[in-house]
Amino acid sequence: MAFSCVLVTGATGFIGAHVVDNLLSRGIKVRAAARSRSKAEIMIETRPFAKSILEFVYIDDIAEPNVFDQAMEGVDAVIHLASPLNYSVADKERELIIPAINGVRSILQAAAKNNIKRFVMTSSFGAVLDMDREKNTPWKYTAEDWNPISYAEAADPSASPQDAYRGSKKFAEQEAWKFMAQEKPAFELVTLCPSMVFGPTAHPVTSVDTLNESNALLWRVASGVEPLPPARFNFWIDVRDLAEVHVQALLNPNAGGKRYLPVSSQKFSYQLASEIMRDNFPAEKDRISSGVQEINENVDVDTAPVTKDLNIEYRDFKETIVDFLTQAYLLETAK
Ligand SMILES: NC(=O)c1ccc[n+]([C@@H]2O[C@H](COP(=O)([O-])OP(=O)(O)OC[C@H]3O[C@@H](n4cnc5c(N)ncnc54)[C@H](OP(=O)(O)O)[C@@H]3O)[C@@H](O)[C@H]2O)c1
């Protein structure tokens, strides 16, 4: 499939910036949606080669009704990544769950009014994972699986921010599939449910203190915060591979109407991350956190559909860690 202009939301975020770069490297025109003018300006300044094919539109809050109407004009495909991913929130329902659901509703309504051919949405493995089943029962997750968490459980003030986030992703993705079934728009939906995403950043990051949530966990290990962060599951993907998954989900005619779980077939733990860091950055060895962390061999993910339909080859965890940490140490000293 070929597109004349792709609207990318969350373009100034960790994954979004890599998706933007992947599209630009193919000469595909990108209309990037951002809420921060200063981040958008940095993205433009650092991509002088893309002047003629990268433009920004400003969407202050994705959850506002009709907010995408103008941004959608002249666009024929959408990659929707914007969603709150921040565990330091005071009101989890208001700041995580409601904006995720309303954001999806608002952008799908705008897409249906325009000439959109394909809509790729970034959901999460959190929308798939069943924490209780995982503890004891051997299980291979497929695109048929859904996190059983109820709205009431996710929105309960006593829920952890992680559970509220996982709920937000489940309900937002279900909202998208419900919209497709009820409204039957002319475009095809593809949803992606990646697990933990790690790797070097391409979006504006001014210090190691402002890294995105998933890379911040790696930085905790690298900078010696004890103990190792808990790995609630051992699935991960490199951000550059995930950007390629997004673009293939857009371009590949066979992907339409499908739900994919982009997950490397190699499992990770923060113990493994720590060992790779120590081996590859011997000068920092003394401050890198260490600990023992088991990999749960009871659970797996069916990685075949992504590999087969989207033709993805995954990077090794070592490459991801080394590339991330090389950049993070430079960022730390540039402070
Ligand atoms: N990182 C992971 O491990 C992981 C794993 C699975 C799924 N995902 C999903 O991947 C997507 C991107 O995540 P990420 O890791 O790239 O996180 P991120 O760096 O925090 O990016 C999130 C993006 O969404 C934008 N955004 C959030 N709330 C918004 C709102 N209410 N209105 C307008 N824009 C809003 C942010 O804008 P600003 O740039 O202005 O902050 C940012 O560009 C999300 O849908 C997330 O759920 C991430």
TrEMBL record:
**Which parts of the chain are coiled coil?**
none
- State the Gene Ontology terms under molecular function: oxidoreductase activity, acting on the CH-OH group of donors, NAD or NADP as acceptor
Q: Is Oxidoreductase one of the keywords?
A: yes
Keyword list (alphabetical) reads: Oxidoreductase
Q: What is this protein called?
A: Dihydroflavonol-4-reductase
Q: What is the lineage of its organism?
A: Eukaryota, Fungi, Dikarya, Ascomycota, Pezizomycotina
Instruction: Name its species.
Output: Coleophoma cylindrospora
Family per UniProt? Answer: Belongs to the NAD(P)-dependent epimerase/dehydratase family. Dihydroflavonol-4-reductase subfamily.
Q: Which SUPFAM superfamilies match?
A: NAD(P)-binding Rossmann-fold domains (SSF51735)
Q: Does the keyword Oxidoreductase apply?
A: yes
Domain Ketoreductase, residue spans: 4-151
